[in-house]
From TrEMBL:
One of its GO terms (cellular component) is membrane. Gene3D superfamilies: Periplasmic binding protein-like II. Belongs to the nlpA lipoprotein family. The keyword Lipoprotein applies. It comes from the Bacteria. Pfam families: Lipoprotein_9 (PF03180). It is found in: Membrane. PANTHER family: D-METHIONINE-BINDING LIPOPROTEIN METQ, LIPOPROTEIN. InterPro entries: Lipoprotein_NlpA. It comes from Vagococcus acidifermentans. Its main location: membrane. This is Lipoprotein.
Length: 277
């Protein structure tokens, strides 16, 4: 009888242990997994946010892409759940060209463009006929031309607003040669050109400190609003509570402090200046 009683107690203990393990597994499986697409290998800010989200039961998987053409297609095809790499003008242009309706759900940072050079220290040193490489996509290319205008190097047709092309240059006194390359290639072109206009994230990936290394840095002012980087979702997911928690976790003071400390002025938190969305 004693052996039977002991056996029952052992069996009961084993069942309780299994039940406890089962509860732990269930709790772990309750974590909501969200795939976020980014461009480039520098994910330090999102890694910081990811740690915060884990405490709230959200498992953020950061998916790295190598160029700007991939993350929106992946989002629309439901290969990822969100992306964070672009500004509103880029998104609007993508939607218009591809018939999609991808939608911004929150602002992140402003990432100013810079003019970089391995050969000169100032834009004033550019000589007649020098070559400058710029991104070849319509939105960043247009932004780059406007930056060259702000640097006093060219003038563009004002009627083109934020989307001038090389054909819209109305004044180019130094007869600068403007070469259009994939945005990921502009930093690599610096050995071959007098100067290159490089997006903030691409410059960081190439080892530059944008505020210190650029020979001309895009000013952040009222005209910067269309270039604020955003978190983007499919239209049916704009009110998804988990995604809204991700936006809220990003737009916090600790993230702002992390960005300012880590990137100095290369990335500038945008949600306080330009609104949360």
């Amino acid at each position: 009888m004693k052996k039977i009683t002991t056996g029952i107690l052992i069996l009961a203990s084993a069942l309780l242990l299994l039940a406890g393990c089962g509860k732990g597994s269930a709790k772990q499986s309750d974590n909501k997994k969200v795939k976020l697409g980014v461009v480039g290998s520098d994910t330090r800010t999102w890694d910081f946010v990811k740690e915060k989200l884990a405490k709230d039961g959200i498992d953020l998987e950061i998916v790295e892409f190598t160029d700007y053409n991939q993350p929106n297609a992946a989002l629309n095809d439901k290969e990822i759940d969100l992306n964070s790499f672009q500004h509103q003008i880029f998104l609007d242009n993508y939607n218009n060209e591809h018939g999609t309706k991808l939608t911004s759900i929150g602002n992140t940072v402003n990432s100013p463009l810079g003019i970089y050079s391995e050969k000169i220290k100032s834009v004033d040193e550019l000589k007649d006929g020098d070559e400058i490489s710029i991104p070849n996509d319509p939105t960043n290319g247009g932004r780059a031309l406007i930056l060259l205008q702000k640097a006093g190097l060219i003038k563009v047709n004002a009627a083109k607003n934020n989307l001038p092309t090389v054909e819209d240059i109305t004044e180019n006194k130094k007869q600068l040669k403007i070469t259009e390359l994939d945005a990921a290639q502009t930093a690599r072109s610096l050995q071959d050109v007098a100067a290159a206009i490089i997006n903030g994230g691409m410059a960081i990936d190439a080892g530059y400190s944008p505020k210190q290394d650029a020979i001309f840095f895009e000013p952040v002012d009222d005209e910067s609003r269309p270039y604020v980087n955003i978190i983007v979702a499919r239209p049916e997911d704009t009110d998804n509570q988990t995604y809204q928690k991700i936006v809220a976790a990003y737009q916090q003071d600790d993230v702002k402090d992390f960005i300012l400390e880590t990137y100095k002025e290369a990335y500038q938190p945008a949600w306080e200046t330009f609104g949360k969305k």
